């Protein structure tokens, strides 16, 4: 009888304890009052100790920077609104591309992957086969950081991560993945830039950036920047034309960039499924890219 009583007390504690009500009351009350409303994320203050200069490009005093506009000037095209995806022509100048390559060359080391938010890393070439360099914050690099902030509108509590270049040799690739991973306490990697630095003087074959869940745009002017289906294709058994299907691959065009938002702006902390992406295998030549990630408050 004593064991039955103990079990009954345990059940009552689990389902009726003040701790349980405290942990789940927000969700329960929300579901009762607004059953169709998606629960909002619970936010915690950003730990200031996490803003380490080896990980975050802290702004500091930028008044002394000499960031002159370059030509041709950047041109921004909106590829998608939900999620927000921008295509930016001439994001980098030719001088900046050469500078990035020069300062990266002695720093490249094998890329790694992580499954626990960066606590541990390991080398797995079946998932990611490239070389990475965390580049020094020269004046030119800080100007690139500022450009990335400007495009995002100088958002509150959003910080540029230290810039990294990636080099992919023949066969190099990065399998499909999300940059956003999982948010913690309302903070996460809110946005990404994929910037192309070098394509081996035009000798590169393959290596595009693919978003298999993103809808294709039908306007043929986008074919200058994305891989377009064969015009002679007439569709298939499901009745869809090639341009109606999902799947977008952005071409490697040095100096240009893609920008995308990783999280929805509805307070739920949900990431966009459409930003699942991959660096496709390099079939010939060498590709060098620049990752610009922003971490901070999820709107």
From TrEMBL:
GO terms for molecular function: iron ion binding; L-ascorbic acid binding; procollagen-proline 4-dioxygenase activity. Residues 1-16 form the signal peptide. Coiled coil: none annotated. PROSITE patterns: FE2OG_OXY. SMART domains: P4Hc. The keyword Nucleus does not apply. Keywords: Dioxygenase, Iron, Metal-binding, Oxidoreductase, Signal. It comes from the Eukaryota. One of its GO terms (cellular component) is endoplasmic reticulum. Residues 159-296 form the Fe2OG dioxygenase domain. This is Fe2OG dioxygenase domain-containing protein. It comes from Sordaria brevicollis.
């Amino acid at each position: 009888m004593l064991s039955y009583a103990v079990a009954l007390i345990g059940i009552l504690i689990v389902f009726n304890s003040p701790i349980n009500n405290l942990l789940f009351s927000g969700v329960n009350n929300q579901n009762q009052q607004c059953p169709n409303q998606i629960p909002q994320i619970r936010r915690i203050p950003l730990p200031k100790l996490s803003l380490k200069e080896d990980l975050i490009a802290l702004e500091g005093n930028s008044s002394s920077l000499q960031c002159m506009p370059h030509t041709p000037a950047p041109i921004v095209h909106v590829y998608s609104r939900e999620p927000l995806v921008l295509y930016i022509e001439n994001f980098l100048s030719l001088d900046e591309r050469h500078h990035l390559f020069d300062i990266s060359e002695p720093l490249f080391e094998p890329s790694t992957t992580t499954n626990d938010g960066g606590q541990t890393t390991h080398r797995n070439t079946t998932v990611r086969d490239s070389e990475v360099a965390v580049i020094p914050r020269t004046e030119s690099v800080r100007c690139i950081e500022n450009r990335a902030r400007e495009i995002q509108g100088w958002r509150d509590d959003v910080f540029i991560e230290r810039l990294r270049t990636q080099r992919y040799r023949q066969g190099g690739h990065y399998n499909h993945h999300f940059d956003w991973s999982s948010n913690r306490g309302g903070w996460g990697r809110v946005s990404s830039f994929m910037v192309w630095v070098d394509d081996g003087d035009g000798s590169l074959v393959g290596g595009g950036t693919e978003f298999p869940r993103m809808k294709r745009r039908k306007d043929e002017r986008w074919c200058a920047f994305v891989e377009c289906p064969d015009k002679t294709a007439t569709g298939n058994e499901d009745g869809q034309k090639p341009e109606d299907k999902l799947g977008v691959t952005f071409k490697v065009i040095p100096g240009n960039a893609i920008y995308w938002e990783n999280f929805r702006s509805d307070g739920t902390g949900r990431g966009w499924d459409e930003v699942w992406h991959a660096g496709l295998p390099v079939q010939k030549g060498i590709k060098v890219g620049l990752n610009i990630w922003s971490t901070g408050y999820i709107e």
